[in-house]
Amino acid sequence: MARSRVILAVILSFSLPQTSLSRASSSSLGAIVYADRAHLGAGNASAGTTIFPGDKLRTEPAGSLQIRAGAARLLLSGSSSATLTLENDRLGASLTTGSAVFSTANSRAFTFHVAAAVIRPSTDLPTIGQVMVLNPKEFLVKSVRASLRIAVEDDVREIPEGASYRIVLDPAAAEPEPQGPRGAGAKDHKWPIKKPKFIWIPISLAIIGTVWAFHEAFESPDRP
Q1: SS3 call for 31
Q2: What pLDDT, on a 0 to 100 scale, did the predictor assign at position 187?
Q3: CATH class of 29-173+194-218
Q4: pLDDT tens, residue by residue, 94-121
Q5: What phi and psi values does residue 158 have, to the nearest 5 degrees?
Q6: CB neighbour burial string for 186-208, b if at least 16 within 10 angstroms, e if fewer
Q7: Distance between CA 168 and CA 147 in Å, rounded?
Q8: How many helices (H) and strands (E) does the chain have?
């Protein structure tokens, strides 16, 4: 009986780490494919490292970091930070500071968040987008290839290929509140108006010039 208990304990001691490893593997998102002066959590990031939901990525001022997950790639330029998420079994990321480029092979491969805004490819064509955070309620976005879909709750719009916009997530702070016409006997009456969740302002400049060199990696024959 004692010998049987010892054997059972040994079996359990080997099976528990394997079970944990299997679970970790099944929840992984992908891997880091390039890292230079970049960090994963509290440690340094290195190529080949597996990434998981909840991982925090950060780059130094002259650093960069690129990850690949299924049919999507994400590149962080210098002085950037992002948190990875798992959405419908696919990669997602929330950019909090800095700038990033993402590349996808279809509309479901990747979801990008900036504050309350959600950015996705609007078609299943190979798509490349760029985003730069200016402050917690304002960012720049450019559709480099194909078109992007940006949504803040039920306010959804499309950014065509080649277009760039400055997105403001607090329209009330950017524009005066409109007033409806005043009827007879009415004093300062405001008609109910459905306000947009964000405003966008067309721009014509290249918003993230420091990362254009990395587009060659996205254009490779085995790109997602």
Answers
A1: strand
A2: 53
A3: mainly beta
A4: 999 999 999 999 988 999 999 999 999 9
A5: -120, 135
A6: eeeeeeeeeeebbbbeeeeeebb
A7: 19
A8: 3, 16
